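Hi R.,

As promised on Friday, here is the backbone we talked about, encoded as structure tokens. Could you run it through your design pipeline when you get a chance and send me back a sequence?
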């Protein structure tokens, strides 16, 4: 069980955390992005997309529920599946829209508002909770029950510290 907390002072820093994280992701990874409206989930997702070489704008799929992008991971093409489950009313809707179908080895999944689909999410995932809103700094908390995330997150934090990012 691992919890690591970092601070982001600006939207740009949140994006940069995402970019550094994106560079450490592996095919099949699932990330649950948790936070209030305006916390910075989409900014983090955009950074992750940048880290995976996604070209073109990434917007929150609030109305379409799922956006798919093409990216690169370890030199291979990968699908980046970005979900926004905010509009779902019932957990069963997650099954209807095919949330689980995106948990494949050729995709990396980012899920905003994952709480409604809790029963459908894999155990081996990274939960990222963003606390704060408005002009306040953000606390970004990385949490996983699986050990394979721990080394990647520690590497992420260490490399950001070397670049002068705040901890």
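Update: got your reply. Pasting your designed sequence below so it's all in one thread:
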């Amino acid at each position: 069980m691992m919890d690591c907390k970092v601070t982001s002072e600006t939207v740009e820093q949140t994006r940069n955390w995402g970019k550094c994280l994106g560079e450490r992701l592996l095919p099949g990874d699932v990330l649950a992005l948790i936070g209030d409206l305006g916390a910075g989930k989409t900014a983090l997702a955009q950074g992750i997309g940048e880290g995976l070489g996604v070209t073109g704008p990434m917007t929150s799929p609030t109305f379409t529920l799922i956006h798919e992008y093409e990216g690169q991971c370890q030199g291979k093409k990968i699908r980046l599946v970005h979900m926004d489950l905010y509009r779902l009313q019932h957990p069963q809707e997650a099954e209807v829209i095919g949330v689980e179908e995106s948990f494949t080895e050729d995709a990396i999944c980012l899920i905003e508002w994952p709480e409604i689909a809790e029963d459908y999410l894999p155990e081996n995932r990274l939960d990222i909770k963003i606390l704060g809103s408005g002009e306040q700094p953000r606390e970004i908390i990385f949490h996983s029950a699986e050990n394979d995330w721990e080394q990647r997150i520690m590497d992420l934090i260490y490399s950001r510290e070397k670049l002068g990012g705040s901890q």
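One thing I noticed while checking it: The chain has a mean pLDDT of 88.

Thanks again,
M.
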